[in-house]
Amino acid sequence: xxxxxxxxxxxxxxxxxxxxxxxxxxxxxxxxxxxxxxxxxxxxxxxxxxxxxxxxxxxxxxxxxxxxxxxxxxxxxxxxxxxxxxxxxxxxxxxxxxxxxxxxxxxxxxxxxxxxxxxxxxxxxxxxxxxxxxxxxxxxxxxxxxxxxxxxxxxxxxxxxxxxxxxxxxxxxxxxxxxxxxxxxxxxxxxxxxxxxxxxxxxxxxxxxxxxxxxxxxxxxxxxxxxxxxxxxxxxxxxxxxxxxxxxxxxxxxxxxxxxxxxxxxxxxxxxxxxxxxxxxxxxxxxxxxxxxxxxxxxxxxxxxxxxxxxxxxxxxxxxxxxxxxxxxxxxxxxxxxxxxxxxxxxxxxxxxxxxxxxxxxxx
Length: 364
Ligand code: TXA
Ligand code: MG
Prior knowledge:
Oligomer: single chain
CATH topology of the largest domain: DHBP synthase
Shape: globular
CATH architecture of the largest domain: Alpha-Beta Complex
Bound molecules: threonylcarbamoyladenylate, magnesium ion
């Protein structure tokens, strides 16, 4: 298949401001040209095509959420297990009604505070949302993304867009259009080339069908922030709190399966071996140096992934692209320094880091 790769990077907030607030005509022409291309892709998507597009979190691979055949082809293009439900992206908050009849004051507070933005709400699904879109569940994940290309695409398509991250299943999520081209060129109909993703890790997934609401996947919107908006403590799926190979067990010794099916797969894995060093900051740095020189003496090419302790937002932004870059360097081993789990964003990055490393951890 030939993939149409369209540069729509002029459709961004800065250019929109120059075009329509400052009144710069050259900027207006560029923005309008980009909108025309996005609409072409949106109309194709409504006709069953697959379109990769930027969002503020990571790039997504979209299909009409109501088109079973197109949604099936998304699984094929990614090489993804088909029991993994997709998030449905909408172009305005009120369009949640196309997917769900559930609406309550807590949801409205969350929409007011965090939409558009990196929050996915799990709600009961309408009967006409296909089972293939929700992985056979009777709930659906809904998100209003904060990216002008994504919004224009959804509105042009005129339907909710089911979209997982636009990477091959098992490789790091794409935060840069070049990652999408690497993974999906020749496998999808369109790739919309926008800017790099601002947030860098996927949306927080919050289950609204339970009381209190429960976080199934951590993100940059943390339990504290969501809890403050809904006025009650927001819980984490117990599975998320155990960042080791053993699964969390309940009081009867039964394994608690993660409620977001996507969380159970080995995810975001780089090609290189990866190890996480966890502990007191100074000791972590010393241990990383020790492991690095030891492995280099053994003839291994070693990459280091270490963020400053207070740079959580930046760590989230750069995490996946740094993994890809280290992989492209052809390294044999990646040694990563753990971030603090006590910080909500640190916790979200650690969720990905530990999975990427296959829970391979050294404590110092
Ligand atoms: O930021 C994001 O959320 C990105 C962009 C493209 O929007 N999308 C994304 O999609 O990360 P994906 O498919 O890679 O991850 C979706 C996650 C999975 O862990 C999945 O199991 C969970 O959301 N999920 C989706 N629908 C669900 C449902 N009805 N119940 C429980 N978990 C659900
Ligand atoms: Mg994904």
